[in-house]
Design goal:
Radius of gyration: 14 Å
Helix content: 25-40%
Strand order of the largest sheet: 1-2-3-5-4
């Protein structure tokens, strides 16, 4: 697999989920289900929590794919996630926070930062 970058934006709308669920399978990358889980959870968090379902907001999506790793970046216009939530242990039975638990279970590294008015969430999965 060669290095590959893909960048695009969508409106903050659940209508894009069918398209997003097919990205990694169509790119023929290792473990497409795990990567899709990360992407869908991060995208859904942006729609619900960052944008409060306001469709006029946008979500930036970037994928950096190399033979050693795949990085998923989701950029939204929300307030961001408190870093302590990224480290918190979640119960599989709780009703909120399960998306972060699923992302952490499928990613090797998760980062979160604010840059001006933008919130940048990244998840990386490494390969041998």
């Amino acid at each position: 697999m060669k290095n590959f970058n893909l960048h695009f934006e969508t409106q903050s709308d659940f209508g894009y989920l069918p398209f997003l669920t097919r990205i990694f399978k169509s790119l023929n990358v290792p473990h497409p289900q795990a990567l899709t889980q990360i992407l869908i959870e991060a995208y859904t968090n942006a729609v619900i929590h960052a944008h409060r379902r306001k469709k006029e907001k946008w979500i930036g999506l970037s994928f950096f794919i190399s033979p050693k790793k795949i990085l998923i970046r989701v950029v939204d216009q929300g307030p961001g996630i408190k870093n302590k939530l990224l480290r918190k242990k979640f119960s599989r039975w709780q009703t909120h926070g399960r998306g972060l638990m699923l992302i952490r279970a499928n990613a090797d590294k998760v980062t979160n930062k604010k840059r001006g008015r933008l919130h940048i969430f990244e998840a990386v999965r490494f390969y041998a």
